[in-house]
Each structure stands twice: as structure tokens, then as C-alpha cells.
Amino acid sequence: MVEEIFANRLKKGERIVWSGRAGRGLIFMPDDAFNIPLHLFFVAVFIYLTVTDWPALTLWGVFVICLALYWAVGRFLVDARMRRGTYYAITNRRVLFARPSPYRSVRWPRPIFREVRLAKYPDIALIEHRGGRGTIRFGPPIRISDVRYKFTLIPSLDPRPHLLAINDARNVFELIKRLGLIAAQSADDEPETL
């Protein structure tokens, strides 16, 4: 099934070496140990202020309660739904990503495709989880001051290319490094054309 998704995306001489899909279920990030209690605290405070007859806070209170509930609970459901349709493939030249659009509709049901060329040998990091699962991220880490940081709170919407919660992550990481070196060497051997 995964090979079928990427079959028409392969270039001449390219073959799929590994394929898989994003992990299922809820995924908690290290920041969640702070974020979940903080948002539940906001929910409790604004429920108290809304119920204890603060008329000025009633409308705002309901808004803040809904927003805090989304960040405490809802974002995990959105993330799980996004990962349900996310697939990955590693070829001898690229890493391919296919994920559903967050604004998926009947008129535009096709997935969003991304790629990372192995010849560039990108900055790559492995974050290991229990049971051999892990996440492989491409590109430098995002700082808290960066505007894109807010998307890392929902792992599937992280703007950096990544293989999220895949099985046997260490072996896949080593495969990417090995293929990256081979692709970089073959790119160096090719003559430049103008």
C-alpha cells in the first residue's frame, strides 16, 4: 500500500528501500509535562471565575476554557488524526513524506508530499522512544523564540520534515545515514553541467 502512494513520485533509477507509516495513538512530547497541567490550571481558574458570577469574564471565560481544553486535550486528538494518514518512504536518493492536508475536504482529498534529498546529507537527529520506536527529524532544532515553535506542540504539524514515531527507528536512522553518504559520494562524482 505505501509503495503505491509513492509509485508515481519515483524518478528514473530510484527504488524504494524502506517504507512505513507514522505511529498510531497518543504521542506525548517532553514539553507536555509542563503544558498539560498549565492548561488544565487555566481551565479550572476560568471555570471558577465564570461560575462565581463575574459577568465581565463570562464570554471571555468560555473562550479561554475552550482554548485551554484544546491545548490540554484536543491537540492530541488532532495529532492522532493527522498521523493516521501519514506515510513515509526512503529511496536510494530521497526520503519521501505523504500526509493528509489539515484542511482535507471532499474536493481536495489528495495528500501533501514532501521530500528530503539524501545527496545534501541534511542535519538529522534521532529521538528514541520505548520499544524501538522513535522520531527522526531533518534540519536544525527550532528555538522557542521562532514563530514556527508553536507548531511543534502538535508533532504531526511540525514544519520540519520528520519520520514520526516509526518502528525500528535506530535501524532506519542508520539506513538514512548510509544512503546519505552513498548519495553524497555519487553526487560528487557526477560532472557539473551548465
Structure, described:
The model has no long low-confidence stretch (mean pLDDT 79). The longest helix has 27 residues, at 58-84. This protein has 2 domains: 2-9 and 16-22 and 85-189, PH-domain like (Roll); 32-79. The protein contains 4 helices and 7 strands; from the N terminus they run H-E-H-H-E-E-E-E-E-E-H. 22% of the residues are buried. It has helices at residues 2-6, 32-51, 58-84, 169-189, and strands at residues 16-21, 87-91, 94-99, 112-117, 124-128, 134-138, 162-166. Helix 2 runs antiparallel to helix 3 (58-84). By secondary structure, the protein is α+β, with helices and mostly antiparallel strands. The protein is elongated, with a radius of gyration of 21 Å. A 4-stranded antiparallel beta sheet has the order 1-2-3-4. A 3-stranded antiparallel beta sheet has the order 5-6-7, covered by helices on one side.
CATH architecture title of the largest domain: Roll
- Count the E strands: 7
β-strand amount: 15-25%
Largest sheet: 4 strands, antiparallel
User: Which term fits the overall shape?
Assistant: elongated
Structural class, by secondary structure, is alpha+beta
* Distinct helical segment count: 4
Overall mean confidence score, pLDDT: 79
Order of helices and strands: HEHHEEEEEEH
Uncertain segments are none
N- to C-terminal distance? 39 Å
Q: How many domains is the backbone divided into?
A: 2
CATH fold field value of the largest domain: PH-domain like
The side-by-side strand order for the widest beta sheet comes to 1-2-3-4
Rg on CA atoms, Å: 21 Å
Residues in helices, as a percent range: 25-40%
CATH class of the largest domain: Mainly Beta
